[in-house]
Amino acid sequence: MKTNLMDSVDFTENVPTEASSDSILSDTPRPNASAFAQSPPPSGDKTPELTSGVSTRCVHGGEARQKSEGSITTPIYSASTFTFESTDELLDFVEGRQSREEYGRYGNPNERVVEAKLAALEGAEDAILYSSGMAAIVGLLMTKLSAGDEIVFFDQCYHRSREFCSKHLARFGVVTRQVRTGDFDAMEAAINPRTKTLVSESPTNPHLTCVDLEKFAAIGKAYEIETLIDATLATPLNLKPIDFGVDYVLHSATKYLGGHNDLLAGVICGRKELLDPVRGLRGCLGSVNSPHNLSLLERGLKTFALRMARHNENGMAVATFLENHPRVDRVYYPGLASHPSHAIAREQMNGFGGLITFTVKDADWKQTAKVVDAARIARIAPSLGGVESLIEQPLVMSYFSYSPEDRAKFGIADNMIRFSCGIEDSDDLIADLDQALAAV
Ligand SMILES: Cc1ncc(COP(=O)(O)O)c(C=O)c1O
């Protein structure tokens, strides 16, 4: 496994500070507004050098050391707009001499902190938050693609991402080409001079296939095409796509990053130069978070590394149990040697996450539903990555309106169950699944 978690990241970067709002009143020329997210804090407010381990980044990354009124937590700036003392001050802002907040759709102080924390966790230059993971995907692709452009993506993916690409982008004249996940020859064959973006998840949802990121990024570079990895299932603790040369990393922060099944959010990380136009379009789309939502996300992130370690442990324990269960046919978990992606996962990941997909032996969809219904700890719900374990049957939850042929095409079996391990005790989750499997 790569030991890239301890990479040195200066998490004092990108920090909005109280001192920076004081400077609003000074005459000192300031960088323009879009540079604000990259401005280091004034020296008097610099967070002392701390070891930049991942847990330390979770707790302190992106935050000013001294906050308003000495508050240890970031205050919630519940403002839709931000006032100017005078027209001169407004001119300082519009003429780029002063960086500051203006209007909530373009950003707010809570967002700056969480974006900086996420950039520090990902080892990225910049991060842009959205109101959901889907809003992030839409925001990025709408920025980067124009009529006549083409996009190539690996076919195993979150069904709404696939739907957005193949159904909605098509309405704007963007051509979508799907190729079999991991088939790099097919990906290369699908590329032509109009191709602008290559997209994949790793691991994929719900088959947990891991894509060789070195190859993926290399193809992008060879053809001068931008690459996007949706690493929601991996998280920055388990996988750092940027280290492999991928241009954009996307997360549904609704999942492990928020971690408590109490918020929706999405984030794209990458180089600032590439993200600036994406941030610009977000200001038009308006797909931003409320300061209260961001405060919840900031709190969730403080314990992200701790929670994720438990998700990884539980995932491995439950997957191993399921693999040895007589009522289970097949288990999809990249930490198991039996998973086709195991070698790649071991090479490029630090842990394998909490999501497991499995099939019930000799069961039709109704018998499979009985197993789901018999679970006493896991709750029946879509989503994953929260502290509460969740269970669902993809056929019923997400693919009920699909034809049997399309379900077969996307590998959604009638007897398939997706289990998201929470942070409960693994013995309890195992005992619960054992009794649930006895229902058939
Ligand atoms: C891999 C993946 N990407 C993106 C999304 C979309 O995220 P959100 O629900 O936050 O819009 C999901 C949602 O389940 C997902 O599983």
UniProtKB/TrEMBL annotation:
CDD domains assigned to the protein according to its UniProt record, in alphabetical order: CGS_like
Residues modified as N6-(pyridoxal phosphate)lysine: K255
Keywords: Lyase, Pyridoxal phosphate
One MF term in the entry's GO annotations: cystathionine gamma-synthase activity
Domain of life of the source: Bacteria
Segments for region (Disordered): 1-72
InterPro entries in alphabetical order: CGS1/2, Cys/Met-Metab_PyrdxlP-dep_enz, Cys_met_metab_PP, PyrdxlP-dep_Trfase, PyrdxlP-dep_Trfase_major, PyrdxlP-dep_Trfase_small
Enzyme class: lyase
Annotated signal sequence range: none
Cofactor: pyridoxal 5'-phosphate
Gene3D superfamilies for this protein: Aspartate Aminotransferase, domain 1, Type I PLP-dependent aspartate aminotransferase-like (Major domain)
Polar residues composition-biased segments: 14-37
Enzyme Commission number(s) of this protein: 4.4.1.11
One BP annotation, GO: transsulfuration
Tagged with keyword Transcription regulation: no
One protein family per Pfam: Cys_Met_Meta_PP
Membrane among keywords: no
Similarity-based family: Belongs to the trans-sulfuration enzymes family.
UniProt protein name: Methionine gamma-lyase
Lineage: Bacteria, Pseudomonadati, Planctomycetota, Planctomycetia, Pirellulales
